[in-house]
Amino acid sequence: RFTQCRRRASTDFTGEAVSGLFHCSQTRRSLDKCWALSRPSDAQRLWGSMGQLAVTNWNAPLVWEGTFDPVVIDAIYKRLDPRLAVVVLAVGKYTRFLKGFLESAEKYFLVDFRVTYYIFTDNKQDVPKIELGTGRKITVLDVPSATRWQDVVLSRMKWATIAIDNQIRNEADYLFMMDVDSVFHSRFGAESLSPLSAVLHRGYYKTTRNYFPYERRGTSKAYIPPDEGDYYYTAAVWGGYLEEMYKLVKYCYEQSEEDAKNNIEAVWQEESHLNRYLLYNKPTKVLSPEYLWSDYDQVPADIRVVRISQLVKNYAEVRPNGGQ
């Protein structure tokens, strides 16, 4: 049912490809190229309520609080009844973060949708028992331990690629990659869904590309030239259609392997490869830093709501190589 509706959506949409417009009828629907607003003004179609740009220069929605109607957009997607996969890696001492992540996700993450949490871990016995809502479940997958945190973050691209091939492809329509050391604080709903959704990194959404921590060494597969770049995206939250995510996850894995053959590691591991991919394969929706903040930072006035935030932690204690 979801696939049929999605196929119709991709072929029947004839409306404007600008943030804020939603066109829907019995015969014309595009749920992944547009999103709901309650009678927006022309200005609201281009700007959020705090003056933020609400559309990218390639006409993809840039999602902020106040630029969508949460009731309407959730109701529309619920009619399609999509299956959602959330992949998290909890290796070593990071299993301690599972309880907070899962319990808060059950309160705020796509509530009343079908969700499977795929937990990749080397400590199955440490996966907590969590009361889940209807249609939601946990699947635990074994992965080996690692001696460097850099290997942990790079390996999740490998294990996600393998898991999609072996299992997840048959069980999900959308897939999100998320960091487990995070907690949800507010609604994270269907406005986040699109063929490929990326989240602006909280540290760089107000800066120009000259300050983005792209990989600048030409010997790395993640290299981005100094005169190129749209945004800097975080690798802690990203999602999209299962097959679009598979292409991106596999790309990050394969490019990291190529770098390893040449004795180089991208400056920010899979995040560097993610940013290169998204520069040349534009996301269909960009989510504001509301969709991944950090407890290390004060919340500025333009962030009206923190939907999910990374926890403060002692990296030297939780990381296998002491955070180095």
UniProtKB/TrEMBL annotation:
Positions that bind an alpha-L-fucosyl-(1->2)-beta-D-galactosyl derivative: 201, 271
Annotated membrane topology: Single-pass type II membrane protein
Chain residues that bind UDP-N-acetyl-alpha-D-galactosamine: 94, 179-181
Compartments, record wording: Membrane
The UniProt record lists the keyword Glycosyltransferase: yes
SUPFAM superfamilies tied to this protein: Nucleotide-diphospho-sugar transferases
A GO CC term attached to the entry: membrane
Known cofactor(s): Mn(2+)
Residue positions of the active site: 271 (nucleophile)
Residue positions binding Mn(2+): 179, 181
Gene Ontology terms: biological process: carbohydrate metabolic process
Keywords, sorted A to Z: Glycosyltransferase, Manganese, Membrane, Metal-binding, Signal-anchor, Transferase, Transmembrane, Transmembrane helix
One GO MF term: hexosyltransferase activity
Cofactor binding, note field: Binds 1 Mn(2+) ion per subunit.
KW Protein transport (keyword) present: no
Pfam families listed in its UniProt record: Glyco_transf_6
Protein family membership: Belongs to the glycosyltransferase 6 family.
Name used for this protein in its record: Globoside alpha-1,3-N-acetylgalactosaminyltransferase 1-like
Upper lineage: Eukaryota, Metazoa, Chordata, Craniata, Vertebrata
